[in-house]
């Protein structure tokens, strides 16, 4: 990425606008993709996210856990990719600068291909921008709240579910598996089973009449640390006030990576012995 930035700077000094635009677009794409890759690989969970913050609302004082930045960075990456591709096509068609197409593709067909790729990337970015979800999960001494706002174009719908601790019968965890083979991805999720029915307006796709599902992989908190905290609060009613303390977000600080690797090895060994 440093090479791309240096080329863009040199092009700016030579007043080559097209090269500057393409270089900036490539730098944004590479940076966004790198961040998404690190998040997917779990590096965002090495430390507690600074975005985990105290919250005070109608329910009580607690901890608010927002969702990660994967989708916003994906939209930015696609937008930058469209700028790169469309700029390459436009400079070829109008000859406003030195061609930005790669060697062997400096043809009308190559320009059309880049225009199609740029238009496709722009269309996907616009779709993700118009159809998106914002998820927040909050923990209080009195219970837990899952807040989801879904956008469909210019309209939105809110699913706001709150469960009292006394109504939570079970807390379990599993993985939502998507893809197959090399593209398989395991996304951790936490299920909260309630002793009372969940109103239909508060339910989402993976919920049930007496269950709400928290997509832990979408949140900035480390999933296992979040699960451990929820189970501790459920089993220790006299300790639930700790989430109302000023330093309560420290409760979601994940253990050192060495300890997590050791726990994973023990879990795999126990599973193989069964």
Which structural class do you get from the secondary structure elements? Answer: alpha+beta
- Beta strand %: 15-25%
Helix content: 40-55%
Largest sheet: 5 strands, antiparallel
Total number of helical segments? Answer: 6
Overall pLDDT level: 79
State the order of secondary-structure elements, H for helix, E for strand. Answer: HHEEHHEEEEEEHH
Q: Strand order of the main beta sheet, please?
A: 1-2-3-4-5
> Which consecutive residue ranges, at least 5 long each, have pLDDT under 50?
1-16, 270-274
Shape: elongated
Description:
By secondary structure, this protein is of the alpha+beta class. The protein is built from six helices and eight strands; from the N terminus they run ααββααββββββαα. The chain has a five-stranded antiparallel beta sheet. Strand 3 (131-139) and strand 4 form a beta hairpin. Helix 2 (17-40) runs antiparallel to helix 3 (70-94). The longest helix is centred in the first third of the chain and has 25 residues, at 70-94. It starts with a helix and ends with a helix. The model is unreliable at 1-16 and 270-274 (pLDDT under 50).
């Amino acid at each position: 990425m440093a090479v791309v930035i240096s080329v863009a700077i040199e092009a700016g000094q030579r007043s080559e606008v097209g090269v500057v635009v393409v270089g900036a677009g490539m730098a944004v794409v590479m940076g966004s993709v790198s961040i998404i890759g690190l998040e997917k690989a779990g590096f965002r969970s090495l430390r507690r996210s600074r975005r985990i913050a105290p919250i005070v609302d109608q329910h009580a004082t607690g901890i608010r856990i927002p969702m990660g930045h994967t989708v916003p960075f994906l939209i930015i990456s696609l937008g930058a990719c469209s700028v790169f591709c469309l700029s390459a096509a436009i400079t070829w068609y109008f000859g406003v600068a030195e061609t930005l197409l790669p060697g062997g593709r400096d043809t009308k067909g190559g320009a059309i291909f880049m225009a199609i790729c740029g238009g496709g990337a722009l269309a996907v970015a616009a779709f993700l921008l118009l159809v998106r979800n914002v998820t927040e999960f909050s923990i209080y001494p009195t219970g837990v709240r899952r807040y989801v706002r879904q956008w469909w174009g210019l309209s939105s719908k809110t699913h706001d579910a709150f469960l009292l601790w006394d109504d939570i019968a079970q807390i379990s965890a599993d993985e939502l598996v998507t893809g197959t083979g090399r593209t398989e991805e395991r996304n951790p999720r936490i299920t909260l089973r309630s002793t009372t029915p969940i109103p239909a307006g508060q339910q989402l796709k993976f919920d049930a009449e007496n269950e709400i599902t928290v997509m832990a992989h979408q949140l900035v908190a480390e999933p296992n640390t979040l699960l451990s905290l929820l189970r501790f609060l459920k089993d220790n009613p006299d300790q639930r006030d700790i989430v109302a303390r000023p330093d309560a977000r420290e409760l979601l600080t994940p253990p050192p990576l060495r300890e997590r690797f050791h726990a994973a090895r023990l879990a795999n060994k126990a599973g193989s012995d069964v």
